[in-house]
Amino acid sequence: MEIVSEILGRARSGSKAAEHPAEESVDVLICGSGSAGLACALWLAIYNHRFGGTSLKPEVNGSSHGNQESLTTRPVTYRILESRDGPLQLGQADGVQCRTVEIYESFGLDHILKDEGYWVNEVSFWAVDQANPATDGDGATEPGRKKIVRTGRAADVQPGLSHQPHLILNQARINGLMLEKMKALNGQDVDYGWKVADIEVKKNSNESHPVTVTSEKGGTKRSIRAKYVLGGDGAHSQIRRSLQIPMEGDNSNAVWGVMDVFPRTDFPDFRKKCTIHSEVGTLIIIPREGDTMIRMYFELPDGTNPKSVTLEDLQKKAKDIFWPYNMDFCTTKWWSAYSIGQRVAKSMVDDSGHIFLAGDACHTHSPKAGQGMNASLQDGYNIGWKLGALLMGQADQSILNTYIQERHQYAQQLIDFDKYWAKLFSSEPQEDGKKPTAEEFNQAFIKGGLFTAGMAANYQDSDLVANSISDQNLAKKIVVGQRLPSAQVVRMSDSKPFPLLKLLQSDGRWRILVFAGDVDDPATLPSLDRLGEELSSERGLLRKFTPAGMPADSILDTLVVLRGDRKTLEFDQIHAAFKPNLDDMPITNLHKIFFDDESWNWGHGHVYETLGINPRVGCIVVARPDQYVSAVVRLRESAELSEWFMKFMRPTNN
Ligand SMILES: Cc1cc2nc3c(=O)[nH]c(=O)nc-3n(C[C@H](O)[C@H](O)[C@H](O)COP(=O)(O)OP(=O)(O)OC[C@H]3O[C@@H](n4cnc5c(N)ncnc54)[C@H](O)[C@@H]3O)c2cc1C
């Protein structure tokens, strides 16, 4: 997407060039502090905080670790180079999909988004009134014009898709939260004002840091050697250009305008998300946080040169679309006009396997389906934990291949969805020469909900998605390769209710969720005992990958979910493997046993039913550190799981 006009103020002074050595070596160099770069950076801070201490000392022309890391508690060293003078202040994306809110929940930040953001609960559809003569608000007619009327309302998010809402909040704040969290975890900041100029990689070399990135700030040059580089430097990515990776797809003719305005209007739905199909064009309203500002997106006529568009053009167009309602603008906070490119990079990785692209650097689409920021952030979220696990010596380098496999496929799906979405919104007829009716549009909008909620990612079989050992029938509503669906469970220790997904915090740990079955079934506790014995045995899953001296749940965190009346069970009936000591104290952790049961004041989550698990059979669900499901196996199949983990996890030599 090419942004051609902005009336934004920017600037904030960043760090001084002199604070940085002219040459240094780091594990990871991130180019760009947008949503993609920051999501990856935050993961590295999380891995450092949890596994590597917090003192970050880059190795100056560092020592060799080779491509295969040995198990280490040394912090991952990383730098984030950003050409802007300071953090993003305003503008751009604002739609925070349910899935992105879930990710923020896993970072412990969702409450801020929910407090500050606009909640998109309902969407209101408006279209040309075909039946009635055109009159304006005072009943006056305008010959030859048809007015707009409300044609329907629907839930914005399909009920049951997520326990989190779809929100609207500006990207500056969304990025800022990740930035603050990263700084709080390991003191790392972004190096502002450093523009990446070039990147070079030594192919087929055994060098520990084969990539060299050159950057510049106010005439000062800097060279950083890195093991891995993430190009999160936006739609005009210098990294992608240096690697000569082409973008594939097309720059469509569609030109869109966007304005953040404080409206004075008699249009009744301006505080709802609306799609408006008028005779003179299509417009989308996205209400903004803070109760008064709204964003308007609308398509401009084919052939419009975005560079020649003025604010007055946009305001006139909007007024026309709203007719017969009045639409005046008290203030316009921000506006832009741009043409839509629906394109994906040919590859998200260079030939050496050390340089990756993420976000707009490798896929661009129109903003109206609210995908760009979310998809970019989720790219960074996908690769970040994999780099963390690799560089901490927990996993093999092969897991990086799954980043490309998973996110390139998703990017392609997004482009297909975006094309479909763009046509749906377009005022031009479809291929068959017809325009969708209002009803067809409303239905198609609802169908697209999986994408607009950010729930459409379905990762295929790979080292990290084990369809081969999974039996989907054990949990009919969990899809291996998708993020774990959620429902409420009640913690046995203190009767506190939790959404299941909230238990899967982004802290770098894998989750072994043991759905042991009905507590009143005489077979349940013996089978849980047997599993506890297997998991904690010398060759068992838990000990195999956890270094001696670290708490038993450091790498793989086991959570038990039983069904039935929690008051009938005592903790001493539960195997010790499910009650390891706390991280930092020799105290038994009782917080890992949950029930599918009525809570005192918060209802019943029916998690077994929601996930399609038969309580007489049960199952083990393995969730990756990013909450995607890797496997669903029988309770007696922990040995198979252990073998599967060996494909990419590094066993300890305990
Ligand atoms: C008007 C508008 C509205 C949008 N609305 C939405 C929406 O509602 N929902 C949604 O999901 N998305 C929306 N988007 C898209 C969204 O903003 C982008 O998809 C998203 O910002 C991409 O994130 P990113 O991290 O990949 O790139 P960016 O956010 O572009 O970040 C890239 C960073 O890299 C830096 N950089 C660039 N070159 C260099 C270099 N050579 N050296 C160092 N640093 C460099 C840049 O300064 C920037 O900070 C919108 C975009 C626009 C323009």
Task: Give a structural overview.
With 654 residues, this protein is an alpha+beta fold. The chain has three domains: 20-90 and 171-246 and 346-438, FAD/NAD(P)-binding domain (3-Layer(bba) Sandwich); 122-155 and 250-341, 2-Layer Sandwich (D-Amino Acid Oxidase, Chain A, domain 2), CATH 3.30.9; 467-645, Phenol hydroxylase, C-terminal dimerisation domain (Glutaredoxin, 3-Layer(aba) Sandwich). The protein has helices at 35-51, 98-106, 110-116, 171-186, 238-243, 311-322, 372-391, 399-425, 438-447, 449-452, 524-536, 541-544, 607-611, 638-645; strands at residues 2-3, 23-31, 78-82, 95-96, 118-119, 122-128, 148-155, 167-168, 191-192, 195-201, 211-217, 220-231, 247-265, 273-278, 281-287, 294-300, 327-345, 355-357, 363-364, 488-491, 497-499, 510-518, 556-563, 593-596, 619-623, 629-633. The strands form four sheets. Strands 1, 6, 7, 13, 14, 15, 16, 17 and 19 form a nine-stranded mixed sheet that branches. Strands 2, 3, 9, 10, 11, 12 and 18 form a seven-stranded mixed sheet that branches. The protein has a seven-stranded mixed sheet with strand order 21-20-24-23-22-25-26, covered by helices on one side. Strand 11 (211-217) and strand 12 form a beta hairpin. Helix 1 (35-51) runs parallel beside helix 4 (171-186) and helix 1 (35-51) runs parallel beside helix 7. The chain is globular, with a radius of gyration of 26 Å. The two termini are 52 Å apart. The structure holds flavin-adenine dinucleotide. The site of flavin-adenine dinucleotide has 35 residues, from helix 1, strand 3, strand 10 and helix 7.
